[in-house]
Design brief:
Layout (H helix, E strand, L loop, with lengths): L2 H22 L6 H19 L17 H4 L17 E5 L2 E6 L14 H18 L6 E8 L9 E11 L2 E10 L2 E11 L3 H8 L1
Antiparallel strand pairs: 1-2, 2-4, 3-6, 4-5, 5-6
Length: 203
């Protein structure tokens, strides 16, 4: 299978599993329906497991024009990862901007996005801001301030930017908006590493 065709097939598979996750956490079917669904899903999973390799395919295959293509298995924005909503990150006027609409699988308080999901999204948006600003490195500290509940099923906008640097320390900040209202803010400390050391963390 050609690389592009395989990439599209993986993205389609992840999208199908996202729909399955949504159905699983919202279904109100009877026992017969649930049992039949579980059996058929198990059969598909068994078929997929026959093609699982150890070690798995490279998590960072490289290439592409966006950070999502650099990290297709990322749990926040990876198009090949069904856990990802996914968050779509772009670069606008010196800021990393993430666009997303979280559905029911990401619910915390009734009708609202879970705080842990918001934290994971901020971590990735700030990392992208660092990367696009010319620095990269792991998160040392991430602090969040929740200003208001963040609603599900609504377009959301994450923003992240580098505030300052102190030697190898990168201080970045961000905010989350729902309909123009700031629902959360973030402050992160990251430690700059050279690219070779970053990739060694993967192994």
């Amino acid at each position: 299978m050609a690389a592009d065709s395989r990439s599209d097939a993986l993205a389609d598979l992840a999208a199908s599993v996202r729909r399955l996750i949504h159905a699983t956490v919202t279904v109100a079917g009877d026992v017969a329906l649930l049992g039949d669904a579980a059996a058929r899903i198990d059969a598909v999973t068994t078929a997929l497991c026959a093609a699982v390799t150890e070690p798995p395919p490279p998590r960072y295959p490289g290439g592409g024009d966006s950070v999502a293509e650099w990290m297709p298995y990322d749990p926040v924005m990876g198009k090949w990862n069904p856990l990802a909503a996914p968050l779509v990150v772009t670069w606008e006027d010196g800021r990393a901007v993430g666009a997303v609409r979280f559905g029911t699988p990401y619910e915390g308080p009734p009708g609202c996005v879970h705080g842990a999901v918001i934290a994971a999204s901020f971590d990735q948006v700030l990392n992208v801001a660092n990367l696009m600003d010319g620095t990269a490195g792991p998160t040392a500290r991430l602090e969040l301030t929740f200003r208001a509940p963040t609603p599900l099923h609504r377009p959301l906008r994450f923003e992240g930017w580098v505030e300052r640097r102190e030697a190898r320390k990168i201080h970045s900040r961000g905010r989350l908006l729902a309909g123009g209202i700031v629902t959360a803010e973030a402050a992160g400390l990251f430690i700059e590493l050279d690219p070779e050391r970053v990739m060694k963390l993967v192994g």
